[in-house]
Amino acid sequence: MKRGFHGMVARLKVTLWSLIVPPTVWAVHFLFSYLWAAIHCAKVGGFPRLPILYAVGTVAALAIILAAGIVAHLQSRVPGDPAPHEESTDSDRIRFLAFSTVLLAALSFVGVVFTAAPVLFLTDCR
Amino acid sequence: MRRIRSSVGAAALLSLGACNRHQSALSVFGEEAATVRHLTIVMLIGAVIIAAGVAGLMIAAVRAPEGRLTLSGGMRMVGWLGGVLPVVVLLALLLYSLPSMRPLPVGANDLRIAVQGEQFWWRVRYQPPGSPPLLTANEIRIPVGRTVQFDLTAGDVIHSFWIPGLAGKMDMIPGRTNRLVVRATKVGVFRGVCTEFCGLSHALMAFDVVAMEPAAFDAWLANERRPAAPAAGTAPGAQAFAANGCAGCHAIAGTPAAGLIGPDLTHIGSRASLGAGTTRMTREALVRFIKDAPSVKPGARMPAYPQLSREDAQAIAAYLESLK
Q1: What 3-state DSSP class applies to B50?
Q2: Cis (ω within 30 of 0) for the bond into B65?
Q3: Do A121 and B102 touch (CB under 8 A)?
Q4: What is the C-alpha separation between A68 and A58, in angstroms, rounded?
Q5: For FRET with B203, which of A47, A79, A115, B35 sits at 20 to 30 Å CA-CA?
Q6: Contact of B117 with B150, CB cutoff 8 Å
């Protein structure tokens, strides 16, 4: 099973497109937060006591970012290949992209948590 | 030596600002301001600890012999102290401060005070539940221990409403009503100000805030509802007030004066300050304001009255002073 998972990860090569997945999810979640609050304030006049839709959206965003981060983390580690990794080779390029994706995923994860916390705490549209 | 003495003197003068008990976010008399002060103190202590830690690390880094840390050890240290620790500290501060952003709950039976910012004064309307509204200006009285909701708006340009000892500031925007819910905790006379630049006399746009015991507040409100009762012997002032067209802009309940352009003057004699917190309420200040308001408040819409005789101005001032 683990071999299968690693095999799948190896096939999912990080690219510039996969690099922008975590920050894009963060941006979409940010927009979702504003839209969710604005629609509730305009239609209902207040936040619901149990914001199920918002919680589901936030957990989904965190899960996608986490998955992108784990895949990139696994790809950034090539056992038995000591530093430095600064050559213009496929392996070093992927390692660079993967490590950048890991850092962006960490930042995006924190960004989504910092966006969601005020929304879950605030209850008033004022 | 003289230079040191004068620097110490200047620093001591600056610290006199801390003696302000009248208009200070540190001299609190309301629940929200107390929460903000508490948060400020916690953050200040946290900031001092973090600054000391960073300074200590910097000294240690400068003094450490070369090669003390390996490359991976250094990277790990940067990762933990520069990445993980700030995230944890910021998240903790965020979660700690978020509950204080929740506004106070307000019910249908709580007192509402509608305040409208004008260049450069405050139109105040008390709306107690179940009673007709009461119009006044440039002074706000609130009962201690009761929840009060301010409905804030503006009549001309954007102003901002701030009573530092009571709560945070809230913008007053034409065509929009912002709500601010407060609860005073201490009796006293305090001061609020406009904190959004609104024109020439922005810095002269303030007001007195009187926090009173609930029973005293109710008695004051009942008295404010009575029409103005000028003192005996002020009839010449009332005549001059009418003859010079003051009623075109100002209202005095119980008289034909019903102008709404300027501040309501029904109980002006009971206010502590004149011209929206600009000067103390004295006969001389009233005379000067009546004769030449722009010299006291540049940009004010009330024009100067050079043709008004000093005797008439004094009579009007005596009349207004007696309206308590």
Answers
A1: helix
A2: no
A3: yes
A4: 15
A5: B35
A6: no
SS3 B253: coil
- Residue pair A25/A18 in contact by the 8 Å Cβ criterion: no
Strands (E), chain B: 111-118, 121-127, 134-137, 139-143, 147-154, 159-162, 170-172, 178-183, 188-194, 206-212, 273-274, 279-280
Q: Tokens 């009255």 map to which residue?
A: B305
Token pair for B154? 């503006």
B chain contacts of residue A117, beta-carbon cutoff 8 Å: 91, 94-95, 98
Does position B25 have pLDDT exceeding 80, yes or no?
A: yes
Distance CA B317, CA B282 (A): 9
For chain B, list the domains and their CATH numbers: 111-224 (2.60.40.420), 235-321 (2.60.40.420)
- Chain A residues closer than 8 Å to B87 by CB: 110
How far apart CA A79 and CA B259 sit, in angstroms, is 85
Residue-wise pLDDT for B164-217, tens only, equals 999 999 999 999 999 999 999 999 999 999 999 999 999 999 999 999 999 999
Q: Write the DSSP symbol of residue B53.
A: H
Kindly give, in sequence order, each residue whose CB lies less than 8 Å from that of residue B261, ignoring residues fewer than 6 positions away. B248, B249, B250, B301
Q: What are phi and psi of B257, to 5 degrees?
A: -65, 120
Contact B174, B158 (CB under 8 A): yes
Q: Which two tokens stand for residue B248?
A: 């075109």
The string of pLDDT tens digits covering residues B50-85 is: 999 999 999 998 998 888 888 888 888 888 998 899
Query: How many beta carbons lie within 10 A of that of residue B317, not counting itself?
Result: 23
CA nearest neighbour of B107 among B138, B153, B154, B149: B149
> Quick one: which of B111, B124, B135 has its CA closest to B277?
B124
Tokens matching residue B291: 């004769």
Write the CA distances from B179 to A31, A124, B194, integer angstroms: 26, 11, 16
B102 chain-A contacts, CB cut-off 8 A: 121-124
The amino acid sitting at B175 is G
